[in-house]
Design goal:
4-stranded parallel β-sheet, single chain, DNA binding, 148 residues, Rossmann fold, DNA strand exchange activity, alpha/beta
Length: 148
């Protein structure tokens, strides 16, 4: 994760932000990854809003979101408008299967919700990522998963 990426996030300070952290136990991730991600995200939220909730999973990012209780709850809570934005350190932590992209895209496109990754790949709050680009990214991930 790049620590010096300049973020141009445009969220009112009153926004409720959900944090999603995920540790890949099947990869070579450090054992303190969850804590490290949480600290990084908390630092950013201090400038952009308040923390609504923290969702986490300890599993491979390739696992279906239905088998990831933290991510499933996050999507359900977003539909119930419990928060205004999702903040994640790297976008790959959300997308193990393409279905997640469609679920999030549907909720985001219904209005007033944002997705921001600190790796700079997705930021629907600032116009850096339009929904069309977001869906193209999701389709690219589907293609890459088929190649594996």
């Amino acid at each position: 994760m790049e620590g010096d990426i300049r973020m141009n996030v445009k969220l009112p300070s009153s926004y409720r932000v959900a944090l999603y952290i995920q540790e890949d136990r099947n990869g070579e991730e450090r054992s303190d990854s969850l804590l490290s991600q949480l600290q990084t995200l908390k630092t950013k939220v201090g400038r952009w809003g308040t923390i609504s909730d923290v969702y986490f999973d300890i599993c491979s990012a390739k696992v279906s979101y239905r088998d990831r209780p933290g991510l499933s709850t996050l999507i359900a809570d977003m539909r119930c408008e419990r928060f205004d934005a999702i903040l994640v350190t790297e976008i790959w932590r959300l997308f193990g299967d393409v279905e997640v992209g469609y679920e999030l895209g549907e909720v985001i496109s219904s209005g007033g919700k944002f997705l921001i990754s600190l790796d700079g790949l997705v930021d629907t709050s600032s116009g850096n990522t339009t929904l069309l680009e977001f869906y193209q990214w999701v389709h690219f991930q589907r293609f890459m998963n088929k190649l594996k």
